[in-house]
Amino acid sequence: MGKISNTRIFLIMANIESSGRDGFTSKFGVLAAAAGSAIGLGNVWRFPYLMGQNGGAAFLIIYLGIVLGIGVSVMLSEFIIGRSAGQNAYGAFKKLSPKKPWFLVGFMGIVAAFVILAFYSTIAGWTLEYIYLSAVDAFSGKSSDDLQSIFVSFTQSDIRPLIWQLIFMAITAWIVYLGIQKGIEKYSKILMPSLFIILLILCVRSLTLENASVGLNFMFNPDFSKIDSSVILNALGQAFFSLSVGMGALITYGSYVNKSNNLSNTSFQVSIADTLVAILAGVVIFPAVFSFGLDPKEGPGLAFVVLPNIFQQMTGGVFFAVLFFLLLAIAALTSTISVLEVVVAYFIEELKMSRLKATIISSFSISIIGVFCTLSFGAFRNFKIFEKTIFDLMDFFASNILLPLGGLLIVVYVGWFLNLSLVKSEVTNEGTLKGRFFGVFIFIIRFVAPLAIMLVFLNGLGIFN
Ligand code: PFF
Predict the structure, then answer these.
(1) Is the pTM for the entire model greater than 0.85?
(2) Residues lining ligand 1, judged by CB closer than 6 Å?
(3) Domains by residue range for the chain, with CATH
(4) 3 state SS for the chain
């Protein structure tokens, strides 16, 4: 603790101001990009089915507690590391703690980005196929079994899912190649408001269905007898994945944020927006699920099998189906760009590549791993390691090992090893902000968060159950 002198802090700051690095140009741009990273398949596809499987409202309450009590602070820690160093996730640790092994945490983040993008782009590709299927009215008159077999035969086929995955990767790579200001910021500022508008339209449609109240009751009427340790631990894991913390995506984005941004406010606003979208996605999905007498515990198929079933029975179903899958694709895209940027920033700054070369090499190599994830639903579906398909293995390795471990090391680093006055200076913008919650923040990252994360981690490894 206390290893960095004031001169060093000054040098670090002066260095950033004069670096002429690409960066976000407005407060809204930062918010849109960071919320874009957080809001993704995790909110619209994963959160509703986890909530369905973990007791509805009870899960929601625990989730809210975790996001506010821990999530915001982990996010703020990442922003602090990123902005104070003004470097990619690996370079940031190297710069703040030279000659110490902390850069390994950054390196782990780069690895996590490879793994996450490889499997995430599989599902992201599916959203494109489903936009297409919705637009050509492929769900009309189909039974539940038909819809199930459309899903299975698509995901098991060899070529189509791969083509969509590669198209999705290409779009991601294009935006990242354009850079922070002209790519990530610009597109996030267009895509995120669009996402909110689509979400609100879908909410209105869902709430005006007959029996919508049964779905709302499931979402908002807690049955506390449903809460047990596995519900809590599931909520904690989902909160991390959903907030995009633990792998340096927000360290990387933080490095593009200017010195006048209030990082505590940004962390709070991003966490609220992320949670709001998860809840609204539930408001779209559950009233519809109950209105049409389907099962909220359906699991990962909820979005791709249950929802088409609902849309095809609904007035204006084609329109709402296209909107829904477009929403899913937009949410996924603003997340995939944040993951790819982690790798690209590392290649540019540490391996001295141009942005073009870094983008091509990273997206190409991630796509190769991605192909195996996609084929693990089809040609390779019987190939298993530790009883898991390649896709499940990657998801498990990233979500249950790399993210919790990364998150743990990040809070421990900021709480115990980073110079306290540097941390305070970042939170208060060199004393110009009050930083009323600074004490609470430090308490959380020193004690509460490490303990809680340790619990998820052990659970993720199956040691705890
Ligand atoms: N937060 C994204 C989601 O909820 O879908 C997923 C994600 C994006 C995780 C970026 C991690 C990350 F760095």
Answers:
(1) yes
(2) 37-38, 40-43, 116, 241-242, 244, 247, 249, 335, 338-339
(3) 6-461 (1.20.1740)
(4) CCCCCHHHHHHHHHHHHCCCCCCCCCHHHHHHHHHHHHCCHHHHHHHHHHHHHCCCHHHHHHHHHHHHHHHHHHHHHHHHHHHHHCCCHHHHHHHHCCCCCCHHHHHHHHHHHHHHHHHHHHHHHHHHHHHHHHHCCCCCCCCHHHHHHHHHHHHHCCCHHHHHHHHHHHHHHHHHHCCHHHHHHHHHHHHHHHHHHHHHHHHHHHHCCCCHHHHHHHHHCCCHHHCCHHHHHHHHHHHHHHHCCCCCHHHHHHCCCCCCCCHHHHHHHHHHHHHHHHHHHHHHHHHHHHHCCCCCCCHHHHCCCHHHHHHHHCCCHHHHHHHHHHHHHHHHHHHHHHHHHHHHHHHHHHCCCCHHHHHHHHHHHHHHHHHHHHHCCCCCCCCCECCECHHHHHHHHHHHHHHHHHHHHHHHHHHHHCCHHHHHHHHCCCCCCCCCCHHHHHHHHHHHHHHHHHHHHHHHCCCCC
